[in-house]
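call fold(seq) -> tokens
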Amino acid sequence: MDRESYENVLIDLEEDIKIKRAKTEKLNQEILQDENVISVLRLKLSQEVLVASPSNNVESVEQANSSFTLSAGNKYTEKNQSKISLNDASEKILQSEGKPLYVADLIEKLKEYGRFTDRRQLSGTIRKDHKNRFINLGGNNWDLLQRHPEKADN
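ret:
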């Protein structure tokens, strides 16, 4: 193969990867919506509320968020769980884990605080944290900046 052939194959493969990433992101969004519906349904069932028709719109998830029943052992109560921000909850999770977490793992742990979010929202919120508590170690792996003093100036 000549150089031009290699370049064409490379371009084709890069385009194929872009298409596959777009499909993956769409599937991840659909999975997140389904998980939110499951959370709402579990909440309604735990409160013995009859479910006439499931809903996967944001309002239903936000309503569930405000009255979400937390797992045993979590110190946040129904009264104050809605007051904790994504950043504050993320900081507490990263402190308790003692290690960096991939954004999807952080999203799962945030559910214990009654907070529902997606990758895009959480990454943006953490990135714009006015207290500058977080650092992206690459590949959407997040940690507390205080554990990486060598990167604090960057």
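Residues 65 and 115 are 6 Å apart (CA to CA).
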